[in-house]
Amino acid sequence: MLNIFLSVLPIFLLITAGYLVKNRFVRDDGFWKAADKLVYYVFFPALLLLDVSDANFASANTSSSILATVGGTLLVAIFILVAQRVVTVRNDLFTSIFQGGVRYNSYVFVALAQSLSGAEGVAISGVFVAYMIVLTNVMSVLVMNHYGTGGKKSFKGTVAAMVQNPLIIGAMLGLALNVADLHIAGAARQFLTYLGNAATPLSLMSVGAGLMLVMQARQAIATGYAVGLKLLVMPLCTLTLLKVQGASGTPAHIALLYSSVPCAGNAYIMARQMGGDAETMASIITWTTLLSAATITVIIGTITQL
Protein backbone atom coordinates (compact mmCIF):
# COMPACT_ATOMS: atom_id res chain seq x y z
CA MET A 1 0.00 0.00 0.00
CA LEU A 2 2.83 2.40 0.86
CA ASN A 3 4.53 1.78 -2.50
CA ILE A 4 1.27 2.57 -4.31
CA PHE A 5 0.86 5.77 -2.30
CA LEU A 6 4.42 6.86 -3.10
CA SER A 7 3.77 6.20 -6.81
CA VAL A 8 0.51 8.15 -6.76
CA LEU A 9 1.80 11.03 -4.61
CA PRO A 10 3.95 12.81 -7.26
CA ILE A 11 0.96 12.89 -9.62
CA PHE A 12 -1.17 14.75 -7.10
CA LEU A 13 1.71 16.97 -6.00
CA LEU A 14 1.95 18.16 -9.62
CA ILE A 15 -1.81 18.82 -9.62
CA THR A 16 -1.43 20.78 -6.38
CA ALA A 17 1.51 22.69 -7.85
CA GLY A 18 -0.64 23.62 -10.84
CA TYR A 19 -3.37 24.97 -8.57
CA LEU A 20 -0.88 27.04 -6.55
CA VAL A 21 0.92 28.40 -9.61
CA LYS A 22 -2.38 29.36 -11.26
CA ASN A 23 -3.72 31.14 -8.18
CA ARG A 24 -0.48 32.73 -6.96
CA PHE A 25 1.87 33.37 -9.86
CA VAL A 26 0.46 32.74 -13.35
CA ARG A 27 -3.15 33.91 -13.27
CA ASP A 28 -3.37 34.49 -17.02
CA ASP A 29 -6.00 32.09 -18.41
CA GLY A 30 -4.44 32.46 -21.84
CA PHE A 31 -1.27 30.71 -20.67
CA TRP A 32 -3.17 27.69 -19.34
CA LYS A 33 -5.34 27.42 -22.45
CA ALA A 34 -2.19 27.40 -24.57
CA ALA A 35 -0.63 24.78 -22.29
CA ASP A 36 -3.73 22.59 -22.65
CA LYS A 37 -3.50 22.81 -26.43
CA LEU A 38 0.18 21.83 -26.42
CA VAL A 39 -0.52 18.82 -24.20
CA TYR A 40 -3.59 17.78 -26.18
CA TYR A 41 -2.26 18.24 -29.70
CA VAL A 42 1.48 17.59 -29.31
CA PHE A 43 2.89 16.17 -26.07
CA PHE A 44 0.43 13.38 -25.18
CA PRO A 45 0.03 12.11 -28.77
CA ALA A 46 3.85 11.87 -28.98
CA LEU A 47 3.99 9.91 -25.72
CA LEU A 48 1.27 7.49 -26.84
CA LEU A 49 2.74 7.06 -30.32
CA LEU A 50 6.16 6.12 -28.97
CA ASP A 51 5.09 3.81 -26.14
CA VAL A 52 2.31 2.03 -28.03
CA SER A 53 4.64 1.40 -30.99
CA ASP A 54 7.18 -0.21 -28.61
CA ALA A 55 4.72 -2.27 -26.57
CA ASN A 56 4.72 -6.06 -26.46
CA PHE A 57 1.01 -6.83 -26.72
CA ALA A 58 1.63 -10.55 -27.28
CA SER A 59 1.91 -11.10 -23.52
CA ALA A 60 -0.91 -8.72 -22.61
CA ASN A 61 -4.49 -9.86 -23.17
CA THR A 62 -6.32 -6.55 -23.04
CA SER A 63 -9.70 -7.66 -24.44
CA SER A 64 -11.22 -8.96 -21.20
CA SER A 65 -9.93 -5.95 -19.26
CA ILE A 66 -11.37 -3.50 -21.80
CA LEU A 67 -14.69 -5.36 -21.67
CA ALA A 68 -14.67 -4.95 -17.88
CA THR A 69 -14.16 -1.18 -18.18
CA VAL A 70 -16.88 -0.90 -20.81
CA GLY A 71 -19.22 -2.99 -18.67
CA GLY A 72 -18.47 -1.03 -15.50
CA THR A 73 -19.06 2.26 -17.30
CA LEU A 74 -22.36 1.07 -18.79
CA LEU A 75 -23.58 -0.24 -15.42
CA VAL A 76 -22.96 3.15 -13.80
CA ALA A 77 -24.62 4.94 -16.73
CA ILE A 78 -27.70 2.69 -16.49
CA PHE A 79 -27.89 3.21 -12.73
CA ILE A 80 -27.82 7.01 -13.13
CA LEU A 81 -30.54 6.92 -15.80
CA VAL A 82 -32.79 4.63 -13.73
CA ALA A 83 -32.22 6.70 -10.58
CA GLN A 84 -33.34 9.80 -12.48
CA ARG A 85 -36.69 8.07 -13.07
CA VAL A 86 -37.04 7.34 -9.35
CA VAL A 87 -35.75 10.60 -7.86
CA THR A 88 -36.00 13.30 -10.52
CA VAL A 89 -33.57 16.23 -10.42
CA ARG A 90 -33.36 19.24 -12.72
CA ASN A 91 -32.33 18.28 -16.22
CA ASP A 92 -29.25 20.51 -16.27
CA LEU A 93 -28.12 19.13 -12.90
CA PHE A 94 -28.73 15.57 -14.08
CA THR A 95 -26.41 16.01 -17.08
CA SER A 96 -23.58 17.08 -14.76
CA ILE A 97 -24.17 14.07 -12.49
CA PHE A 98 -24.11 11.80 -15.53
CA GLN A 99 -20.86 13.23 -16.88
CA GLY A 100 -19.32 13.16 -13.42
CA GLY A 101 -20.20 9.49 -13.00
CA VAL A 102 -18.99 8.11 -16.34
CA ARG A 103 -16.26 10.34 -17.81
CA TYR A 104 -12.56 10.01 -16.99
CA ASN A 105 -9.53 12.28 -17.00
CA SER A 106 -7.20 10.85 -19.66
CA TYR A 107 -4.26 13.00 -18.49
CA VAL A 108 -4.40 11.63 -14.93
CA PHE A 109 -5.08 8.11 -16.24
CA VAL A 110 -2.04 7.94 -18.54
CA ALA A 111 0.20 9.68 -15.99
CA LEU A 112 -0.76 7.20 -13.26
CA ALA A 113 -0.38 4.26 -15.66
CA GLN A 114 3.15 5.49 -16.40
CA SER A 115 3.95 5.98 -12.70
CA LEU A 116 2.61 2.56 -11.64
CA SER A 117 3.50 0.38 -14.67
CA GLY A 118 6.08 2.27 -16.71
CA ALA A 119 6.13 2.24 -20.51
CA GLU A 120 3.97 -0.89 -20.59
CA GLY A 121 1.31 0.94 -18.59
CA VAL A 122 1.36 3.90 -20.99
CA ALA A 123 1.02 1.60 -24.01
CA ILE A 124 -1.90 -0.35 -22.55
CA SER A 125 -3.58 2.82 -21.31
CA GLY A 126 -3.35 4.17 -24.87
CA VAL A 127 -5.46 1.26 -26.10
CA PHE A 128 -8.01 1.92 -23.34
CA VAL A 129 -8.11 5.61 -24.27
CA ALA A 130 -8.90 4.76 -27.90
CA TYR A 131 -11.93 2.69 -26.88
CA MET A 132 -13.22 4.67 -23.94
CA ILE A 133 -13.02 8.15 -25.48
CA VAL A 134 -15.53 6.93 -28.06
CA LEU A 135 -17.91 5.32 -25.55
CA THR A 136 -17.91 8.09 -22.94
CA ASN A 137 -18.19 10.92 -25.46
CA VAL A 138 -21.07 9.31 -27.38
CA MET A 139 -22.99 8.66 -24.15
CA SER A 140 -22.35 12.16 -22.82
CA VAL A 141 -23.41 13.87 -26.05
CA LEU A 142 -26.59 11.78 -26.27
CA VAL A 143 -27.52 12.68 -22.68
CA MET A 144 -26.63 16.35 -23.16
CA ASN A 145 -28.67 16.53 -26.37
CA HIS A 146 -31.71 15.04 -24.62
CA TYR A 147 -31.53 16.75 -21.21
CA GLY A 148 -29.37 19.84 -21.77
CA THR A 149 -30.83 23.27 -22.37
CA GLY A 150 -28.11 24.63 -24.66
CA GLY A 151 -26.82 23.96 -28.15
CA LYS A 152 -27.15 20.47 -29.61
CA LYS A 153 -24.47 18.38 -31.30
CA SER A 154 -25.22 16.12 -34.22
CA PHE A 155 -24.15 12.48 -34.07
CA LYS A 156 -22.13 13.04 -37.26
CA GLY A 157 -20.32 15.97 -35.65
CA THR A 158 -19.55 13.90 -32.57
CA VAL A 159 -18.09 11.05 -34.62
CA ALA A 160 -16.01 13.50 -36.68
CA ALA A 161 -14.60 15.09 -33.51
CA MET A 162 -13.60 11.69 -32.12
CA VAL A 163 -11.93 10.61 -35.35
CA GLN A 164 -9.86 13.80 -35.20
CA ASN A 165 -9.01 13.36 -31.49
CA PRO A 166 -5.19 13.66 -31.22
CA LEU A 167 -4.97 11.07 -28.41
CA ILE A 168 -6.80 8.49 -30.52
CA ILE A 169 -4.64 9.37 -33.55
CA GLY A 170 -1.44 8.99 -31.52
CA ALA A 171 -2.50 5.64 -30.07
CA MET A 172 -3.71 4.30 -33.43
CA LEU A 173 -0.54 5.36 -35.28
CA GLY A 174 1.53 3.66 -32.60
CA LEU A 175 -0.59 0.52 -32.88
CA ALA A 176 -0.20 0.50 -36.68
CA LEU A 177 3.59 0.72 -36.36
CA ASN A 178 3.50 -2.02 -33.72
CA VAL A 179 1.47 -4.39 -35.89
CA ALA A 180 3.70 -3.66 -38.90
CA ASP A 181 6.78 -4.31 -36.72
CA LEU A 182 8.21 -0.91 -37.63
CA HIS A 183 10.39 0.80 -35.04
CA ILE A 184 10.99 4.49 -34.42
CA ALA A 185 14.73 5.08 -34.09
CA GLY A 186 17.44 7.70 -34.16
CA ALA A 187 16.61 11.40 -34.22
CA ALA A 188 12.87 10.77 -34.66
CA ARG A 189 12.80 8.68 -31.50
CA GLN A 190 14.72 11.26 -29.49
CA PHE A 191 12.43 14.02 -30.79
CA LEU A 192 9.29 12.12 -29.70
CA THR A 193 10.93 11.29 -26.36
CA TYR A 194 11.55 14.98 -25.65
CA LEU A 195 7.94 15.82 -26.53
CA GLY A 196 6.55 12.92 -24.50
CA ASN A 197 8.59 13.87 -21.43
CA ALA A 198 6.75 17.20 -21.30
CA ALA A 199 3.31 15.57 -21.33
CA THR A 200 2.97 14.42 -17.73
CA PRO A 201 4.11 17.49 -15.73
CA LEU A 202 2.39 20.08 -17.91
CA SER A 203 -0.88 18.15 -18.25
CA LEU A 204 -1.15 17.55 -14.50
CA MET A 205 -0.36 21.15 -13.65
CA SER A 206 -3.09 22.16 -16.10
CA VAL A 207 -5.50 19.85 -14.27
CA GLY A 208 -4.61 21.62 -11.02
CA ALA A 209 -5.00 25.05 -12.61
CA GLY A 210 -8.59 24.17 -13.51
CA LEU A 211 -9.70 23.21 -9.99
CA MET A 212 -12.39 25.33 -8.31
CA LEU A 213 -12.52 24.76 -4.55
CA VAL A 214 -15.58 26.92 -3.82
CA MET A 215 -18.82 24.93 -3.63
CA GLN A 216 -22.33 26.18 -2.85
CA ALA A 217 -24.50 24.20 -0.44
CA ARG A 218 -27.03 23.32 -3.16
CA GLN A 219 -24.28 21.58 -5.10
CA ALA A 220 -23.07 19.44 -2.20
CA ILE A 221 -25.55 16.54 -2.50
CA ALA A 222 -25.21 16.25 -6.28
CA THR A 223 -21.43 16.49 -6.02
CA GLY A 224 -21.27 13.84 -3.29
CA TYR A 225 -23.53 11.54 -5.33
CA ALA A 226 -21.38 11.86 -8.48
CA VAL A 227 -18.13 11.49 -6.52
CA GLY A 228 -19.41 8.27 -4.93
CA LEU A 229 -20.44 6.86 -8.31
CA LYS A 230 -17.12 7.72 -9.98
CA LEU A 231 -14.65 6.84 -7.25
CA LEU A 232 -16.42 3.94 -5.50
CA VAL A 233 -19.23 2.38 -7.54
CA MET A 234 -17.43 2.24 -10.91
CA PRO A 235 -14.24 0.66 -9.48
CA LEU A 236 -16.35 -1.96 -7.65
CA CYS A 237 -18.32 -2.76 -10.81
CA THR A 238 -15.13 -3.02 -12.86
CA LEU A 239 -13.39 -5.17 -10.25
CA THR A 240 -16.34 -7.55 -10.16
CA LEU A 241 -16.31 -7.92 -13.94
CA LEU A 242 -12.54 -8.46 -13.96
CA LYS A 243 -12.92 -11.25 -11.40
CA VAL A 244 -15.77 -12.87 -13.34
CA GLN A 245 -13.66 -12.93 -16.50
CA GLY A 246 -10.52 -14.08 -14.71
CA ALA A 247 -8.53 -11.07 -15.98
CA SER A 248 -5.13 -10.52 -14.40
CA GLY A 249 -1.76 -8.86 -14.82
CA THR A 250 -1.01 -5.32 -15.97
CA PRO A 251 -4.10 -4.98 -18.24
CA ALA A 252 -6.39 -5.78 -15.29
CA HIS A 253 -4.58 -3.27 -13.08
CA ILE A 254 -4.84 -0.61 -15.81
CA ALA A 255 -8.57 -1.39 -16.17
CA LEU A 256 -9.08 -0.88 -12.44
CA LEU A 257 -7.00 2.28 -12.55
CA TYR A 258 -9.13 3.58 -15.43
CA SER A 259 -12.29 3.11 -13.37
CA SER A 260 -10.75 4.93 -10.38
CA VAL A 261 -9.46 8.16 -11.94
CA PRO A 262 -11.33 11.47 -11.57
CA CYS A 263 -13.79 13.05 -13.98
CA ALA A 264 -12.53 14.73 -17.15
CA GLY A 265 -11.83 18.44 -16.97
CA ASN A 266 -13.41 19.08 -20.37
CA ALA A 267 -16.76 17.91 -18.99
CA TYR A 268 -17.05 21.48 -17.69
CA ILE A 269 -16.73 22.85 -21.24
CA MET A 270 -19.44 20.49 -22.50
CA ALA A 271 -21.73 21.43 -19.59
CA ARG A 272 -21.28 25.13 -20.36
CA GLN A 273 -21.78 24.76 -24.11
CA MET A 274 -24.70 22.32 -24.08
CA GLY A 275 -26.85 23.58 -21.22
CA GLY A 276 -25.66 21.59 -18.21
CA ASP A 277 -25.09 22.84 -14.67
CA ALA A 278 -21.55 24.13 -15.20
CA GLU A 279 -20.97 25.18 -11.57
CA THR A 280 -21.88 21.74 -10.25
CA MET A 281 -19.78 20.15 -12.99
CA ALA A 282 -16.76 22.18 -11.88
CA SER A 283 -17.37 21.07 -8.30
CA ILE A 284 -17.58 17.39 -9.31
CA ILE A 285 -14.34 17.64 -11.31
CA THR A 286 -12.56 19.29 -8.38
CA TRP A 287 -13.65 16.85 -5.69
CA THR A 288 -13.20 13.69 -7.74
CA THR A 289 -9.67 14.92 -8.46
CA LEU A 290 -8.83 15.72 -4.84
CA LEU A 291 -10.39 12.61 -3.28
CA SER A 292 -9.11 10.18 -5.91
CA ALA A 293 -5.62 10.45 -4.42
CA ALA A 294 -6.91 8.49 -1.42
CA THR A 295 -9.32 6.16 -3.21
CA ILE A 296 -6.82 5.15 -5.92
CA THR A 297 -4.21 4.35 -3.27
CA VAL A 298 -6.64 2.13 -1.34
CA ILE A 299 -8.21 0.42 -4.37
CA ILE A 300 -5.00 -0.28 -6.32
CA GLY A 301 -3.07 -1.06 -3.12
CA THR A 302 -5.69 -3.58 -2.01
CA ILE A 303 -5.98 -5.38 -5.35
CA THR A 304 -2.20 -5.75 -5.73
CA GLN A 305 -2.05 -7.47 -2.34
CA LEU A 306 -4.74 -10.04 -3.25
Question: Could you characterize what this model shows?
Answer:
The structure is a single chain. 82% of the residues lie in helices and 0% in strands. The chain is mainly α. The protein has a single domain (2-305), classed as Up-down Bundle (Na+/H+ antiporter like fold). It starts with a helix and ends with a helix.
pLDDT < 50 stretches: none
The CATH architecture can be given as Up-down Bundle
Q: What is the general shape?
A: globular
- The figure for the number of domains is 1
State the name of the first-level CATH class: Mainly Alpha
Count of individual beta strands: 0
Radius of gyration: 18 Å
SSE class = mainly alpha
**Count of alpha/pi helices:** 12
Helix content: over 70%
Measured distance between first and last alpha carbons: 12 Å
Q: Give, in order, the helices and strands.
A: HHHHHHHHHHHH
Write down the overall mean pLDDT: 88
Largest β-sheet summary = none
As for the CATH topology, it is Na+/H+ antiporter like fold
| Proportion of strand residues | under 5%
